[in-house]
Amino acid sequence: MKYFYDTEFHDDGHTIDLISIGIVAEDGREYYAVNAEADWARIKKHDWLAANVVNQLPHPGEWKPKEQIKREVTAFLLADTLPELWAWFAAYDHVVLSQLFGRMLDLPEGIPMYTHDLRALIDYLPDKHLPQQKTGQHDALEDARWVQVAHAYATRAR
């Protein structure tokens, strides 16, 4: 089953700190979580993150500990068949996903050690135009929904 996902994160060149993750399954299920254990003091000082990501997050009472996110993401991705992961500019998203479990080698059996990159796929298409994301840019779940829409468009265009 295909899973389309996005993460929002703080990257300072040394660490990548998960802010939020959104996943949309091909069967219509959705998952969204905000990391309560992120370094919120640093994140809120980052002008771009404060203006584009933090302002869209749900109330802090809805945020979850990283261990809970890890368990829920595992259950979500392994609920059915072997997951096929897709993201837009997927490299960082896959690192952030992997770091939920520690190292990439610590990914649970059944979760791939790579994510298909929709952006790379677009390079091979004659029509590189994709539907615009109408709302919620930099909201991980809204972005994941757009990845699903863009993937459907791109794979029909072949």
TrEMBL record:
Gene Ontology MF terms in the entry: nucleic acid binding
3'-5' exoribonuclease Rv2179c-like domain mapped to chain residues: 2-148
Coiled-coil region(s): none
Domain of life: Bacteria
InterPro entries to which the protein is assigned, alphabetical: RNaseH-like_sf, RNaseH_sf, Rv2179c-like
Signal peptide (from-to): none
Pfam families with a match to the protein in the record: Rv2179c-like
Protein name, per record: 3'-5' exoribonuclease Rv2179c-like domain-containing protein
Species annotation: Arthrobacter alpinus
Lineage: Bacteria, Bacillati, Actinomycetota, Actinomycetes, Micrococcales
